[in-house]
Amino acid sequence: MKRPNMSSNKLSHHTERQKESQINHPSFSSIVKALPATVPFVPPEEMERQTGHSIRLRLGANESNFGMSPKARQAMEKAVGKSYLYGDATSYDLKGELATLHGIRTDQIVIGSGLDDLLGLIVRTFLNPGDAVTTSLGGYPTFNFHVQGYGGVLHTVPYQDFRNDLQGLLQKAHDTHSRILYLANPDNPTGSWWGAEAIGELRRSLPKGCLLLLDEAYIDFAPLDTIWPLDPSDPQVIRARTFSKSHGMAGARIGYAFANQETIQAFDKIRNHFGVNRAAQAGALASLQDTAFQRMIMKEVAKGKEEYATLAAELGISTLPSATNFVAFDMGTPKRAKLAMDTLWKQGVFTRVPGAPPLNRLLRVSVGTPVERSEFARILQEVVPTLS
Amino acid sequence: MKRPNMSSNKLSHHTERQKESQINHPSFSSIVKALPATVPFVPPEEMERQTGHSIRLRLGANESNFGMSPKARQAMEKAVGKSYLYGDATSYDLKGELATLHGIRTDQIVIGSGLDDLLGLIVRTFLNPGDAVTTSLGGYPTFNFHVQGYGGVLHTVPYQDFRNDLQGLLQKAHDTHSRILYLANPDNPTGSWWGAEAIGELRRSLPKGCLLLLDEAYIDFAPLDTIWPLDPSDPQVIRARTFSKSHGMAGARIGYAFANQETIQAFDKIRNHFGVNRAAQAGALASLQDTAFQRMIMKEVAKGKEEYATLAAELGISTLPSATNFVAFDMGTPKRAKLAMDTLWKQGVFTRVPGAPPLNRLLRVSVGTPVERSEFARILQEVVPTLS
């Protein structure tokens, strides 16, 4: 391989000086210039490098530690062998499967390289700089990151009893003339949820021209009556989902959204058409078809949540009901929550505590495998008595 | 798995009517509203579905039909097993390897889910709506797609003798106060290239505050003297590269760019941090380390280009010199080029003809494997005499 540039950073001083006189820094866009340096999440690998602690129990990113369906894994491994070819930019097979499964049309579906990618696309499609957006205070940081990244203005509504305040969100969306109302249902980071009836009522009360963006990353874990009937013909609703949670494919980067056909066409005007990798498309298709594996995951996660609740009760801590694959332990105060997270971290247990009040007294713990759960129980039993 | 929404499209007529009265279409952003419905490339799978012809020889997307390094493939297959976990959002290992290889710092590197993703990121970072951008007429469509998708204004300069017209591009960038001057070097779709000296001169003559965006997707195939020394400290230059071409990982979706540290920090303010899939990161790292495989690919591609040139000469066609993994056959007229492409397509051979003059008389053919090349030769020998 040709690499004559390997030592190219060793420019002579003469050249360096010559260059200095010729440099005129290009300006960043107005939006980028105005943004603070921020990242939505510091990845656990970076936290390990920064603190020198290694993770033994990775329970802080709501991944599915049960792994993916063996059939999905096999499909992905097979697709690696063909990964010298670009993947299908239209995700024809996967959209066909999703359409059949949900009784909708393929032109009501968009596939993205993860739900985060789709949140960015949705924000970009609807928002002009300066436009208002309503979300919960302490809601999903990556959504906020995209709103700010496209010059939008965030308006937030505090959680009420650790649930999204639907009335408050509606009121705020009306008051601020919001273009988007974002709701994660079931919710991250609390695990709480609203039933189909409440969501229907929220939809009916939306301000004119306001988009209801439902982030349904955790919908597969929710009670049946949480799932509001799909109606992609409604241009005021987008429902975004992912293969990262129940399908255990977080590292594969693939998600999807249901939307009105006209909205899907608008996405096509700007989306990164060849962005979804080939193996992820194959894996997602196989995973959708492996319903037995999905049922097993649902059962395991339900069992794990019960175990966490029992564990917490034994330690005199309460947990929030959860319709997701994680449980929020209410540590009573932000100080105790932070101390618990830090102490666990030093023992190799990765969990998260949200930053915004009142959520900052919650310790969010993903449901791990049975072995991980028993190890977590052992460590938490040691840690809790040491918390002041 | 819970899917009560499978029949949810069957809303009652009563509900449909109720809903109609409540719908207020949210508006798309001003930029999206103004955009025509367009996609940068119709994928070959979609062309197959539309025409009913199956591809036997896939030589139209400049993929590397030699496949990826067996070591990269193994690393990717192994990483699939861990793909229930998010990949490292900082791509620490891969950036470290690239930094070592090129003698630069990791804070001068950004990793994206393919070069297309990075082109979008770069445009978004530097461009305000209405800002001017200079590129060649008939240059890479996906770059143009991103410029228009962020509201930029494209100014184009025709190719001269099937090469990018550096003087013309410079003049246009000056005249239009362009914020970005885009140059693919080596070039797609012509395969032509400029040497390091010409690029250095272009850099020195850039308008103040104009960014030189070098798309170096094909740089690994270029003669040594094409490779302009790397200097990521220069804020006016970004060099974008990919694992899709010489590394044979198009379907894995991973690319990188070298830029000034301040620019990398700006990217971090808006990029999709968890967008690069886990398997691609592992594969890219392994591929970089497999230099023997890289050398083999270079040799094979060089041999294939010679074969194509000989084939063309035998058929009375000329080919353009190429510093890439494809060869542009000059069919003499746009009509002959189009006819050749269509006739080949009906025989299962996927090639491309650029849309813009004077490039629209070129038939662009990726270098295939020896078997593919001999099959292509056989078919082209049949097709050429039938062209009017």
Automatic annotation (TrEMBL), chains A, B:
Residues 1-10 have a biased composition (Polar residues). Residues 1-26 are annotated as: Disordered. It holds the Pfam family Aminotran_1_2. Residues 57-377 form the Aminotransferase class I/classII large domain. One of its GO terms (biological process) is L-histidine biosynthetic process. One of its GO terms (molecular function) is pyridoxal phosphate binding. Keywords: Amino-acid biosynthesis, Aminotransferase, Histidine biosynthesis, Pyridoxal phosphate, Transferase. The keyword Nucleus does not apply. Residues 13-22 have a biased composition (Basic and acidic residues). InterPro entries: Aminotransferase_I/II_large, HistidinolP_aminotransfase, PyrdxlP-dep_Trfase, PyrdxlP-dep_Trfase_major, PyrdxlP-dep_Trfase_small. The keyword Transferase applies. PANTHER family: HISTIDINOL-PHOSPHATE AMINOTRANSFERASE (PTHR43643:SF3), HISTIDINOL-PHOSPHATE AMINOTRANSFERASE 2 (PTHR43643). This is Histidinol-phosphate aminotransferase. It comes from Marininema halotolerans.
